[in-house]
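Lecture 7 notes: from sequence to structure.
We start with the chain below.
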Amino acid sequence: MTVTGRILSLALFALLPFLAACASAPAPMPPQDHPLYPGIQDGEFFIQPVPTRYLTPDTVRQEVPYAGSEKPGTIVVDSYARRLYFVTEEGKAMRYAIAVGRQGLAFRGNAKVGRKREWPSWQPTLNMLRTQPEMYRPYAAGLPGGLENPLGARALYLYRGGRDTMFRIHGTVQNSSIGHATSAGCIRLFNQDAIDLYNRTSIGTPVKVRSESESLALEGPFHDDEYGRATPGTAEALTAEEEILLSGVPATAR
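Predicted structure tokens for the same chain:
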């Protein structure tokens, strides 16, 4: 073997450990779905997993201590804290994070689940068509159930005195909205949570929607953080410097 050949052989021999290490290096693991929010094949529709960036200790459903007086089997909606409870037993409840729309803020008091629907259809109300025709006129005849439907995978229809209140508890594909106040709709949950709640309820399930004073007494104060999510506690007062900086900024832009 020539001198050049021996040098190349030695160089290759020296590189073998590094080549072996590269060959045996494990491939990066793909992101793992949250076990409570995986992708679900639900009939003809596939519900995508909820991205983990939207799942925090405040938004993941969990059984928690419950201080309210409602009986087991009751749904309790707190639109101020943006939480929904299903009372499971004395002193305990399953807690879900919700998004609240204008219609959700307008309802208080007691009702019952009068209807339940899987993959419900949706139709804008006359008020929606009158106030925002450019947005809702294309759906005036109704929208069938499916992945593009704003009611999501499940809907509970609340009745009072035998009449539809037009208040809905439903799923959504807009995962980023959970924990926020929204411009439209009633009470939204992650689709996975809407299915879980749907399976726990029956026609006639009592529903309590808290007033602001009831929310303060049981949950304490909440405020919107810098991302618009409901956060426990009161908002910190602005410093003098922040007040000066914001003084020239229109309120709608803040």
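Points to note: The chain has seven helices and 14 strands. Helices lie at 3-24, 102-105, 126-131, 133-136, 191-200, 212-219, 240-246.
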